[in-house]
Structures are given as C-alpha cells and as structure tokens.
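We were asked to recover a plausible sequence for a given structure. The inputs and outputs are reproduced exactly as logged, with field labels preserved.

PROBLEM: sequence recovery
POSITIONS: 565
GIVEN STRUCTURE:
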C-alpha cells in the first residue's frame, strides 16, 4: 500500500505545480493522473496567461492593482478580493519562474515576453506562446517534474477518497492498464482534477473533464461553491465545439452576423469583440435568436484582414484546427463559431492555500473555487490560477505533512479498498437494463437546455426534475463490461452517479439565485441584485440532494459598481 506525504490527484498544470512546490519544500510528493500528464486538458489552453508585466507599449501603466480591479469587475463583484489580490501580486513572479524553466514565450522586438489584449482588460497583459500556451507550459512543468523526480502514477483513475476520523487519509484508485484497484495512503491529498465541462451537451472540454473530481470531494463531505456559475466560451468551432481561442479576437478578429455587421457594437461599444466572455456569448445567442445568424446556428469569426503573415506567426494552431475540422482556411475565409460550455467557475470550497473544510483535503486549479473568478472568469486568468494556487496548495500541503497534522492507518484504507472492489464487481454484474451512455447523454442535454446561457425558473425546474429522474435510473444500470484492460465502460459507469450529483448542484444553485450576475443570466430576473445575492453559494450533499447556504463575499477595496463595457 503506497504512502506519500503529499498525494496530488491530477497531472495538469495545477497538479504538477503543487507537486513541485512540495518537493521544493523538502517533502516527497506523488501525482496520480488519469492520463499521461502531457495529455492533460491544460494543454488545450491556447491564448495565454495573464500577468501585469507592462511589456507592451500600450500597457506601460499596468500594475497588479489594475489587474486585480479588472478581475473583480469581470467577476461581477462575486470574486473574493483578497484572493484576487493574492493572485495578481504573485502573477509576474510565476511567469518569470516559468520563463526561467524554459517556457518558450513569444517575444517583443526587444526580447521581452510578448503580451496581447484579452477580454475585459484595459491593457495587453496576456503573455502567450503563439496560440499553444497551455501546451508549452504543460511541457515545461512536466520537464521540471522529471528533473526533481516527482513520482507520477500514469493512467490511474481515482475512485474514492478515504475519510476516517474526520480527515482524508488517502485515495482508492483503478489502474486502467491492468484493472487492478489500489489504495494510496497520504499525509495530505490535493485535488487538481480540472473542470466539469462534460456535464453539458456542447463543451470545449476534453472527454476526461467529467467533473468526477468534484464528486469525489462532494461525496466525502467537502462543500462545493458557486457551481451555478458556468462559463460559455463565445467562439467554439461550429459542430465540433473545438475551442477557437480568444487570442483570435485579441489579435484583432471580427465577429460578423449574416448581415455582415460587427454586431458587438450594439452590446459592448467600447470593448467590442474583447468584452468579457459572458457578454460576447449572450450577444451571439441573441443574434441567432433574432435571425441574424447563419443557418440559425452560428456566426463568423473573420481574421482575413490580419493577413497571412500575422496569422501564421501568432495563430497557427487556430488555422490548423479550422482547416482540419471545418475545412476553412482563416487566411481566406471566416471561421464558423458558436458558444459552448468552457469553464467551471465554481468548485471545491477552499481558501487561498487550497485548504478545504475537510481536514487533509486541499484543491487547486479548475476543480477548486478560491474564489478568484466569481461569476465570470477573464480569459488568461485560468492558467495564472493554476500556477499561483498550485504553488500555494503544494506549500501548504508540505507544511501539513511535515508537521504530521494528518495521520493515516491501514484499517480505513483496507476497508475503503474492499468497498471499491465490491462496488466494481457489483457494476460488472449489474441489476438493471439502463444504458449509462443514454443517461449521460440525457444529462448533458438537460443541462444545455435548462441550465445554459439563458436561464429561467421553469426551465431550471424541469432540468432538476430530469436530473433526479436520471439519478434513479442510474441505480439500475446494465452490467458494465467485465474486461480488465482499459475498461472505460466500467469507469464511466462508476463516475455517472457522481456526475449527476454535481449537475444537480449546478442546477439547484442556479434556481436559487434569482438574479443575473456574470455568466448566470436569468430571463425572469435580468438585473443583478446585490441586496439579496451578493454572496457565494455553498452546496452540501445530503441524502435528499444539495443543501444550499450563503457565504459573504470578501470585499477589501472595490465596492460593487455597475459593470459596463
């Protein structure tokens, strides 16, 4: 039964940075990853990572304070301002650290890290490496993990957290290549499992982003926070929903409707295509609903005026995706785009050091809610969050492990291991005829139709009823595939009940919040209501479903104001 003082679940940017920090603090750390770390979803991030370096001429007055203010405004004043300030204060240090480790950032003519404008920012503060930033940063951190001999368990799926005496003591996991189930003992466990995009019918997220990491914590007694806030990216490739980065608009791309208009003039006249993502996504859907889309399904992203040289230098990945998956060369033709689910602003409730209310459990990255994104995340802040709060969570976990704050023993681990093995055998035998793929597809459709970009009471109520019905059906699954080697059917059957619980927390929080704020837009409550809803939403799991309670937002410097672009 392997033991590690710090065990990180998830091998993306946040998880690798957390494990590295534990090593830097002199504490042995291991990473348990569902896929090889270089296949983590962090690699799909294209556009860049924010930091107030002020390397662009028009950004020379940028500061951490300006970065923090624009993040708070972008969050529609739901972000905890102390957490935001902690992130923006450390942003430049983390970027220079990545640069010194070898991250191949694009450069200005003077040799400095290049920065481009992104939505919601008054300054070009998004550091980038062409349009493959996440991919390059992921390789950079993995190289460091190899250098510092971080142990990585590749292709292990976490099945459950081991909780005993009120604290997390380890993880039970399935080794996909062999089908073996093992328990891992740990002094502290850090969740870094990414988002929950695959709860939705249309998503830019990878297939592995099922949200089950959130379910692991939720099932173990850790509350989820602000799950109703789901970001919909305005520009996914029509049909496949592959991400077309905000970098395309940052470089000067235009959004056009079927009448040839740059329609963002009507919705955000100052920022146009570089308004925050929630505003641009709603604007596109409005154009479609009012009949100014193409085939009623998409608008066009036009890059032709940028010229071939600029597209090839700064947007080569986007061009490759458009050619491969839409048959469109953006040098010659506009790209068909539509909104799709993109990011989970909510997550496991934790503080700036990653500590959840459940002793022994920490979280960082997209699966965590610190909260620095509030009701709407600004582009470029997600990659920043992974390295800033990954570092902090790793440091705190190392301190806890070194101090022996959490102890583990074999008894609870063996009991949890036996329970998981029994559960797997029960899934293989099955006791019903319900198809998990059909239930999962119905869940994704219910979320897209009822808990999507525009929401209202009746639609949310229908979605919740559908999810509750699907939870009942999930108790009667047909037998899972009995094979041992890479049994994805078994894993999907195991994950499905947890996914439905997380989906219900999203829908229930959205029904409870009778206002419009950031990404959460209620047609029946179209105004922001600070008097009633300037608070976080905590979801606690009960046998009857989620129990919600409010928590005050930390406001340190900037009282709420009207959000205008």
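RECOVERED SEQUENCE:
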């Amino acid at each position: 039964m392997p033991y590690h003082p710090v065990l990180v679940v998830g091998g993306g940017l946040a998880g690798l940075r957390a494990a590295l920090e534990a090593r830097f603090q002199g504490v042995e750390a291991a990473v348990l990853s569902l896929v090889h770390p270089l296949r983590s979803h962090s690699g799909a991030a294209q556009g860049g990572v924010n930091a107030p370096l002020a390397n662009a001429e028009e950004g020379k007055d940028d500061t951490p304070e300006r970065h923090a203010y624009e993040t708070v405004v972008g969050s529609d004043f739901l972000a905890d301002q102390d957490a935001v300030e902690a992130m923006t204060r450390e942003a430049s240090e983390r970027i220079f650290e990545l640069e010194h480790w070898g991250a191949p950032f694009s450069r200005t003519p003077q040799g400095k890290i290049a920065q481009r404008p992104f939505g919601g920012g008054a300054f070009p503060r998004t550091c980038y490496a062409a349009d493959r930033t996440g991919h390059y940063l992921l390789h950079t951190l993995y190289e460091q993990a190899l250098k510092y001999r971080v142990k990585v368990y590749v292709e292990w799926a976490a099945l459950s957290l081991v909780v005993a005496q009120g604290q997390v003591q380890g993880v039970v996991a399935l080794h996909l290549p062999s089908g073996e189930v093992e328990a891992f003992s740990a002094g502290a466990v850090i969740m870094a499992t990414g988002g929950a995009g695959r709860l939705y019918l249309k998503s830019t997220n990878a297939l592995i982003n099922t949200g089950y990491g959130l379910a692991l914590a939720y099932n173990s007694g850790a509350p989820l926070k602000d799950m109703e806030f789901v970001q919909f990216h305005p520009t996914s490739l029509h049909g496949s929903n592959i991400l077309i980065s905000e970098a395309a608009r940052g470089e000067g791309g235009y959004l056009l409707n079927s009448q040839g208009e740059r329609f963002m003039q009507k919705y955000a006249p100052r920022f146009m295509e570089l308004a925050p993502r929630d505003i641009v996504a709603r604007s596109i859907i409005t154009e479609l609903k009012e009949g100014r889309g193409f085939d009623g399904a998409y608008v066009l992203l036009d890059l032709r005026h940028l010229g071939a040289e600029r597209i090839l230098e700064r947007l080569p990945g986007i061009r490759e995706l458009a050619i491969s998956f839409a048959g469109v060369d953006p040098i010659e033709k506009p790209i068909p785009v539509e909104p799709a689910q993109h990011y989970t602003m909510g997550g496991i409730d934790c503080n700036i050091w990653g500590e959840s209310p459940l002793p022994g459990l920490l979280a960082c990255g997209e699966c965590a809610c610190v909260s620095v994104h509030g009701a709407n995340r600004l582009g470029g802040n997600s990659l920043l969050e992974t390295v800033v709060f990954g570092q902090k969570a790793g440091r705190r976990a190392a301190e806890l492990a070194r101090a022996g704050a959490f102890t583990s023993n074999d008894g609870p681990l063996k009991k949890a291991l036996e329970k998981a093995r029994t559960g797997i055998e029960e899934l293989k035998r099955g006791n019903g005829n319900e198809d998990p793929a059909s239930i999962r597809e119905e869940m994704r459709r219910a979320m897209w139709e009822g808990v999507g970009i525009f929401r209202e009471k009746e639609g949310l109520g229908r979605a919740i009823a559908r999810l509750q019905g699907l939870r009942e059906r999930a108790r009667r699954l047909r037998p899972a595939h009995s094979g041992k080697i890479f049994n994805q059917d078994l894993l999907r059957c195991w994950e499905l009940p947890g996914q439905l619980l997380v989906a219900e927390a999203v829908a229930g929080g959205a029904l409870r919040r009778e206002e419009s704020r950031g990404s959460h837009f209620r047609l029946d409550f179209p105004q922001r209501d600070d008097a009633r809803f300037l608070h976080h939403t905590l979801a606690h799991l009960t046998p009857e479903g989620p129990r919600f309670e409010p928590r005050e937002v930390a406001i340190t410097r900037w009282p709420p104001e009207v959000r205008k672009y």
